[in-house]
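## Example record

The block below lists the input lines for one assembly entry, exactly as stored, with component labels intact.
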Amino acid sequence: MIWYVLTLLILILIAPLLSSFIKVVKMILLFKKPISIFQGYWDFSKLMQKETLISHEASSLTTYAPFLVLSPLLVVMLFLPPAIQGSFYVNFVDAFTITGLISLSTFFLMLLGLDSGSSFGGMGSSREAFISALVEPAMILTIFSVSMMADNLSIAQAGLNLAHHFPKEHMASFLFAGISFFILLLAENGRIPIDNPETHLELTMVHEAMILDISGVYLAIIESASSIKLVIFSSLFVSLFLPFGLEYSPLIALCIFVTKLFLVAIFVALLEVNMAKLRLFKVPNLLGVSIVFAFLSLITFYVLGV
Amino acid sequence: MFCFDTLSTVFIFLILLGAIPNLFYSMGYLPHVERKTHYLVHYFGFVFSMIGVVISANALVFLFFWEIMSLSSWQLILTQAEDKSTIKAANFYFFMTHFGFIFLLMFFLIVTNGNLELGFKEMKSITSMFEYPTLLFFFLSLGFLSKAGVVPLHVWLPYAHPAAPSPVSALMSGVMLKVAIYGLFRFLFDVLYPWPLEWGMLILTLGSISSLVGVLYALSEHDIKALLANHSIENIGIILIGFGMGMIFDTLGLKTLSSFAFIAALFHSFNHMSFKSLLFMGAGSVLHQTGTKNIEKYGGLIKSMPVTALTFLLASISISALPPSNGFLSEWMIFQSMLSSSHIGDISLKLTIPFAVFSLAMTSGLAIACFVKAYGITFLGLHRSTNAKHAHEVNLLMKMGMILMSLVVISLMLFTPFYIGWFDKVMVSFSRGSIYQEIFPSIWNMHSLGTVGGVVSPLILLFALMGITLLLMFAYKVSNKKIRYHNTWSCGYKTSAKTQYSATGFAGPIRRFFSWLYRPEVHFEKQIMAGHESKFDASHYEVHVKPLFEQFLYKNLTKLANTISYWIYRLAHFEKTRYSAMIFNLLLVVLFSYRVFINAFSWATFLLEFIVMMISVKILIVGDKK
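Predicted structure tokens for the full assembly:
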């Protein structure tokens, strides 16, 4: 139990670090002078001190929605696969619940975008709705296939099963599912081929456009929600598709887990530097690739037999 | 004459759950109805006839109540028949519902051997003697699915539901469609029991297509009630996916999985009843206050109509299948029953189920988009019209109706084990084993039945979510931050109703991506100023989405029928020789097919007849080239 709580705390605490780490790696790769790796924490503390500015047009929804954006993600954090063998984990929650909770958070974020009546917010919500509608089928098919391979639908149990007994005979479907899930990681977190988290340009914004009217503590909440979402997705990726190193002593296992998270972050940063952002109407092609890979993974799994 | 077995009781309860909150709402709505007696008579007739349908025990009583149900709802649509479109919608509904009725009648005439007073239980022996059970299945599905609104028989829903007064739309969409589902349950189990695999596949396919088509058309809709009507098509599709999975599992001998899928279908029927009624009531209140069904004319109603906005939000979360709502739980069950398809031995069948998973997942993703649009454009932002500005909360009775219905939604969420236990009894009454203990070992966790089955815990999820949210809000309250209301930056323009996003704009990306389905027609109208096209002023952008099925399937069928009948009319009245040639050809065809049937034909006669036929077709019917 103590390790469960510790893992949870560490994951929540490194969430802003991971986001700024990606930024730092990108800046180094682009020969820029990098920002501090702790920029995420500084932004957070600065935002916490500011007053809350609410638009005249906004309704009471704006005062509740930010909490409802963050809380489903925090609930998801409780259900993640364990980083350490033998530590406590919640074994009764399956992947649909997790995708559902993430959708719940996105639902309130999209409503928040529409609340202040600015055209930017609506634009962001509309695009986010479009992308997340196409993410959903790929997500469910990928998870379906992974849970078949891991022989359990409960996500934490699946992570443990994969670590215990890696299905070598299903390497092909495993790989397909991994590719599909990585595309989803990029799409859900608004990383570069789908959305550029750094620009505030009308043509390219998705996530940033929705939160343009939010300020102060609310902005801090939403920003931490998005960094926690990154942690959720990368730790899901790590425990489902890089399932090794759980059996060492707790401290080392935790270090390995965190290192793997940072490896995923480096990979995301490399991709971001090497790719251009896709036009909005090319995004479905990428997500279509992810859907096709998910199907392929499932089909190879069935054809090769259990 | 009447029977009260478990299935009937469950559906009586469904009807009452839908009707009692509706009654309050209806009473609040009554002052705005001009023909009060007409409305009340048909309203109560409608409710009682629905109860009559689900408790009747023989074919005659069933058909009688079924017809009363159709006719009274038809009259209810006509309550406020002010414009032509309402009358047209009512006529359309009248036609479609009797289209289904004919098939039901044919079904009953066959399975009762013409004695319509035969009870349902006795029909089974007659059916087992009948040589073509698939014909019966087709009659049954055409009859019930045209009522339930399954693609391609769904076209009446987006017309009939918006035309009816709001409480009636809530009843029709929430409750009446479920009566059709009751019919499927009753007659597939009691009369046509051993099902071939193809029937289940057909139902599953129809369900998958309906769910996708329903939600896609809902997204492009501007009329809020038509949007909800399209969502009914979607949800009936989801129910049928569960139903079809149950049939497939049953045929393959996986009885417990089959029961699980049927329970999921029943549970989703209940959930759809609750949240769809609530949504229609909310839409009705908005419509009542603003006087328009056009979603582009709403906006900012959360400030003036808080109760409506809150209940609508609850229903939106539930219909989008977001946890921990009841809609999520039933959709979770349907997903789980599809994932249990890994138990199927047949590999080709196993490979087809993921496509249904895909369509259901896509549907739930698009439903979220659609309800963000419906809720965000209606209740959030700025008032888009003066009507929306002057809207205020509806009267107490209507509010009561909405609050009661949201209590139904919440009860379905909180007391899931109780409901599931009850649905399990229905399955037991169809002589299957009880699976309640496997689904709910304790009331906290809901298990699916596959070997790789998942678990969801509705109550824990609800408490965790509420707990963390309240904790965060409490922390925020304690920190006592200064709040300032001011203008926020809005791209350099003044924020006004015109600059904010419209419903058309919101659905824009999705409409563009699915343009092969929608085939949108875009109308631009630009103001001409001093002989030059102005750039922005009074430019008018409107998108009309063609209903594909109506446009192609129905229109072309009508066109075909018209062409054929005109051709025959011309032949019979103006071209007697050709007409007689046609009769001659028909005779030959009949003779020939007769000989084929009694297996007494030789190729020589076939060739001879064919040549004679071709000659007469060429000379007498086709005629010379002009």
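Chain A has eleven helices and one strand. Residues 27 and 34 of chain A are 5 Å apart (CA to CA).
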